[in-house]
Design goal:
about 30% strand; 36 strands; YoaR-like_PG-bd; transmembrane; 4-stranded antiparallel sheet; transmembrane helix; 15 helices; membrane; YoaR-like putative peptidoglycan binding domain-containing protein; about 30% helix; about 575 residues
Length: about 575
């Protein structure tokens, strides 16, 4: 009899008999489903693990769904321009560019894509791969040294050094140069900005700071206005007394231009502060120069002797001079410079200056006769003869009082074209050359021999470097302004009046005075003779020379006092180099 119920369902007995077997099949089915789902999950993780999550962008480039190599290729293509496009730096109202390649900036593609691919069973990672990724910035690789160098170059666009102003007194005028601030860039900060911002950020702002000059413009303006301008406010009036004058004429005055006084002012700066100093010696010199040019101050004038005719000697009286006491000039004048208007007045003590040769001395020692004379002869005519004539006319009439020293250089002064001298032959470094005043060494030699035979004391003379046949051996003297001079001291019993005359054929110098000695010249033989060389010269400045041997010679001067007394003598040696035989080949 069947146990199944009429409705077709199993009875409880039937169910009790089949229950364990059915539950076993259910468990197996569940496990199977889980295995299938797990396999699908793992398969999904494996598949998506080799690809970038969907909708992912790196540096604005879409790389979603791509495997690693595809993503890198896409990223390199998409960022090519961004990686090489110059970045811009702005600041201080201007701008400049930096080449990222030269600045050591490169895109780090490995770092930029890192973590976007790779197997993971983490549900969050799997879901992210399936549903889509995010956006991320590009990563950069930075060469710090190259970037620092590039920033240093770019910074120069914005940077400027402060301008150091100055104040000076030049040729008596106040000269100022304005100070100005400079600008510096914080280079380290700019390097940091670019390192952290590139390549996402294309424009950067340079942080700048102000650099102050050592000497501020305010200090320049203050110092000029408050301290220097008053010094140059106007001339300083000098008042003094003329001891030689009488009555109201004893009070004399003159003005010193402010510009001349300002030449004594120097300006210095110390740690941003300006100050000035006044050279008292220069102040004194400026005052004396102004007083002299105005005619208020005058040098003492020695008495002079004039020869009229052949034996008519007369005396031009000496004159007392007026000068200021040097120690009393600077202080009152510097004090007056700090004042203004009518208060710029300084009272300075004066003193009378006496002549070296007074009228009484000149009359007592007036020349009586010709005490020496000497003549040399011209070898050529031309510019050198004209120079000799000019110099002789200026030497003629010179008076040398007892005890005075005469300098031919001081008497003639510089030989220049402005004074009428012409270019003619001179000796330079053992060779003939051309220079203004060439030829007047013949006048110097003639003067030297007049000195020699007068017995006056020879102070300085310089023989020519090689022997010139128109002069006596050893008794000749060249001259060159200002170093090579011809000087003598009048140690005779009277004043010496010099007469000089030059013609086309000769030049004569005569001394008139009181004859004190009879003079004899003795010359020794030539010795140490050296023959000249032969030289061919193609230079444009070449001057031909005729050969003359070089040698040494000794000259002795013997002095016999007029009226008796001990005879004295003195000797000097002269060394001549050879005058080489020079042929000029340059036309």
């Amino acid at each position: 009899m069947s146990d199944r119920r009429d409705d077709g369902r199993l009875t409880d007995e039937e169910l009790d008999g089949q229950g364990p077997r059915r539950r076993g099949r259910g468990v197996l089915a569940g496990i199977f489903v889980l295995l299938v789902l797990g396999a699908l999950y793992v398969g999904t993780a494996v598949y998506f693990g080799d690809r970038v999550p969907a909708s992912t962008t790196v540096g604005g480039v879409s790389v979603g769904g791509m495997d690693e190599s595809e993503a890198r290729a896409a990223l390199e293509r998409g960022t090519k321009d961004a990686a090489t496009q110059p970045l811009q730096v702005e600041g201080a109202g201007t701008k400049t560019r930096i080449d990222p390649t030269k600045a050591g900036l490169t895109v780090d593609y490995d770092a930029s894509l890192a973590g976007l691919t790779g197997f993971s069973l983490n549900p969050a990672d799997v879901v992210a791969h399936v549903r889509g990724g995010t956006s991320r910035d590009l990563e950069a690789e930075v060469d710090e040294d190259a970037l620092t160098s590039a920033v240093a170059t770019a910074a120069k666009t914005f940077e400027k050094k402060p301008v150091e102003g100055s104040v000076a007194v030049t040729d008596g005028e106040v000269v100022t140069k304005k100070s100005a601030t400079g600008r510096a860039v914080d280079r380290d900060a700019l390097v940091e900005q670019i390192s952290s911002g590139w390549p996402q950020t294309r424009t950067y702002s340079a942080k700048t700071s102000t650099l102050e000059p050592t000497l501020a413009q305010d200090e320049i303006e203050r110092f000029t206005t408050e301290e220097l301008d008053p010094l140059a406010d106007g001339p300083v009036k000098i008042t003094t007394t003329d001891p030689a004058a009488k009555g109201a004429a004893r009070s004399v005055s003159f003005s010193v231009p402010a510009k001349e006084l300002m030449k004594a002012v120097t300006v210095s700066a110390d740690e941003g502060e300006l100050s000035y100093d006044v050279d008292e010696a220069k102040v004194s010199a400026a005052v004396v120069a102004a007083g002299t040019s105005s005619g208020t101050l005058r040098p003492a004038k020695d008495a002079e002797v004039v020869l009229r005719g052949s034996d008519d000697f007369s005396v031009t009286p000496s004159q007392t001079g007026l000068s200021l006491k040097k120690t009393g000039i600077a202080s009152p004048v510097v004090a007056a410079m700090a004042k203004s208007g009518g208060q710029r007045t300084a009272s300075v003590p004066s003193e009378a200056t006496k002549p070296q040769v007074t009228t009484a001395v000149a009359r007592k020692t007036i020349p009586k006769e010709e005490i020496s004379t000497f003549t040399t002869y011209m070898s050529t005519y031309g510019p050198r003869v004209e120079n000799i004539k000019l110099a002789a006319s200026r030497l003629n009439g010179a008076y040398v009082g007892p005890g005075q020293t005469f300098s031919l250089n001081d008497h003639l002064g510089p030989r220049t074209a402005a004074k009428g001298y012409k270019s003619a032959g001179v000796i330079m470094n053992g060779r003939l050359a051309e220079d203004f005043g060439g030829g007047i060494s013949q006048l110097s030699t003639t003067l030297f021999n007049a000195v020699f035979f007068s017995g006056a004391r020879i102070e300085e003379f310089h023989p020519h470097s090689f022997y010139i046949s128109r002069y006596p051996e050893g008794r000749e003297a060249t001259i060159s302004y200002p170093d090579v001079d011809n000087r003598f001291t009048n140690n005779t019993k009277g004043g010496i009046l010099i007469r000089a005359n030059a013609t086309n054929s000769q030049v004569t110098v005569s001394f008139y005075g009181v004859k004190t000695w009879d003079v004899e010249a003795k010359k020794g033989p030539r010795r140490n003779v050296v023959q000249p060389k032969t030289i061919t010269d193609d230079s444009k400045g070449c001057v031909p020379q005729a050969p003359t041997p070089g040698f040494d010679v000794t000259v002795t001067r013997v002095l016999k006092p007029v009226g008796g007394g001990a005879t004295t003598s003195s000797s000097f040696n002269t060394h001549y180099i050879p005058e080489d035989d020079v042929t000029c080949t340059n036309p």
